[in-house]
Design brief:
The chain is α/β, with parallel strands linked by helices. It has 2 domains: 112 residues, Nucleotidyltransferase, domain 5, CATH 3.30.420; 87 residues, Nucleotidyltransferase, domain 5 (2-Layer Sandwich), CATH 3.30.420. The protein is 26% helix and 23% strand. The strands form 2 sheets. A 5-stranded mixed sheet has the order 3-2-1-4-5, with helices on both faces. The protein has a 5-stranded mixed sheet with strand order 8-7-6-9-10. α5 links the parallel β9 and β10. The radius of gyration is 18 Å and the shape is globular.
Length: 230
């Protein structure tokens, strides 16, 4: 089974796991905001130490591809690509929304007839989202979406339950009053990536070109102008 370094930095959570197949060999995670640049390299080193191995023992590096935090994704990608380039290891990208949906299937609230809607907070009432079926096939494209009281009505009107998950899902009950909208507490984590990165490793064509691999941002970064000082 491949030994893979999994890096998740798409949201405020900074998370690293070393896996062999879908088995966790080492894991580090923090929910501390704006900590990616300070914690990521440290977490990688700690995971290697905990797993009793060095960088050369890795078969590949997997990174969460987004959508999500512009800064977080850039830090994750630059770190992953740097390791791959230096050690001549393959790079695997894992769809962030798909990895959340994959984990949410294990939530006791989930039923096989449900749709899965992972959401990542994108400020105010906007989220990055997609809808997946039980086999994790996309029902909609990845998109920036503004939540309104009638959102997802075409599904609810047909009696379809949707399990909302990810750090944007807490917004759903504030605007949508429907018992078909089920909220999961599943969020981003490197632990959600293990099976998906292992599957991608088995499909050699899933390896990314280091020169051209880039995150899925969906939107331009939110940049504020500095205040004028008097």
């Amino acid at each position: 089974m491949p030994i893979i370094l999994n890096i998740e930095t798409a949201t405020p959570i900074c998370s690293v796991a070393i896996s062999e197949g879908d088995t966790v060999l080492a894991f580090q995670e923090t929910h501390e905001h704006n900590s990616h640049s300070a914690k990521l390299s440290l977490f990688i080193q700690r995971c290697l130490e905990d797993a009793g191995m060095g960088m050369d023992d890795l078969d590949a590096v997997a990174v969460s591809s987004g959508p999500g935090s512009y800064t977080g994704l850039r830090i994750g990608y630059s770190t992953a690509k740097g390791i791959c380039y230096a050690l001549d290891k393959p790079l695997i990208v894992v769809d962030t929304l798909k990895s959340i949906a994959f984990a949410a299937k294990k939530d006791p609230l989930y039923g096989e007839d449900f749709l899965l809607c992972p959401m990542i907070d994108a400020r105010r009432m906007e989220v990055y989202m997609a809808i997946f079926d039980h086999e994790l096939k996309k029902n909609t494209s990845h998109q920036a979406f503004i939540l309104e009281k009638n959102s997802f009505g075409k599904f609810f009107d047909k009696g379809i339950n949707i399990l909302f998950c990810g750090n944007g899902s807490f917004k759903v009950p504030t605007v949508i009053a429907n018992d078909k909208a089920i909220i999961s507490k599943i969020e981003c984590s490197a632990l959600n990536m293990l099976q998906l990165s292992a599957d991608a490793y088995d499909e050699k064509e899933a390896f990314e070109n280091l020169a051209y691999a880039s995150p899925l941002y969906i939107k331009s970064p939110f940049i504020t102008k500095p205040k004028k000082r008097l």
